């Protein structure tokens, strides 16, 4: 199965895999974590509706439910912390290990990662910068994007219609 643009690379996956929650057997064997995570990353990056996720990620409901579960029980936040700590231990993080700075960094390439194809690499900035990153760095940035979205979700949920006057 081919990898789409924006899917986890093998190197990123190898670093993330040890930290992933193990299926508790109750909900059957969890569908391929990598496929589902790629689906979640795709949605965070493109802003596509869940039900419009490409088929290669499997049933959209599976992807959505996993994301909702992990957002609700703190799994995404924990994954980000664990991966940051591991990246730091590997000496591969060249910015402050505060989620805020990570998010600033993640947002720089989130901004360039919408649906249009990347412009020719002249600015030496966006796309190129991502290729120079180590798998640890790009993985932290990806997780930060998901966590940022999860937090924004929580804020929106907390401040539901009543408060928005």
Q: How is this structure best described in words?
A:
By secondary structure, the chain is mainly α. It has one domain (10-156). It has 7 helices and no strands. It has helices at 10-16, 33-46, 60-72, 75-89, 99-111, 126-132, 135-158. α1 (10-16) crosses α7 (135-158), α2 (33-46) crosses α7 and α4 packs antiparallel against α7 (135-158). The longest helix has 24 residues, at 135-158.
Please give a handful of descriptors for the protein shown.
165 residues; mainly alpha; globular; Transposase_6_like; IS402-like_dom; Insertion element IS402-like domain-containing protein
Please write out the topology:
Layout: H1 10-16, H2 33-46, H3 60-72, H4 75-89, H5 99-111, H6 126-132, H7 135-158
Compact description:
By secondary structure, the protein is mainly alpha-helical. The protein contains 7 helices and no strands.
The domain tally reads 1
Name the helicity range: 55-70%
What is the typical, i.e. mean, pLDDT? 77
The description of the largest β-sheet is: none
Counting DSSP E segments of at least 2 residues, the number of strands comes to: 0
Count of alpha and pi helical runs: 7
- As a whole number of angstroms, the C-alpha radius of gyration is 16 Å
Derived from helix and strand composition plus strand pairing, the structural class reads: mainly alpha
Low-confidence stretches: 106-129
User: Distance N terminus to C terminus?
Assistant: 49 Å
Strand content: under 5%
Basic shape = globular
Q: Give the helices and strands as they follow along the chain.
A: HHHHHHH
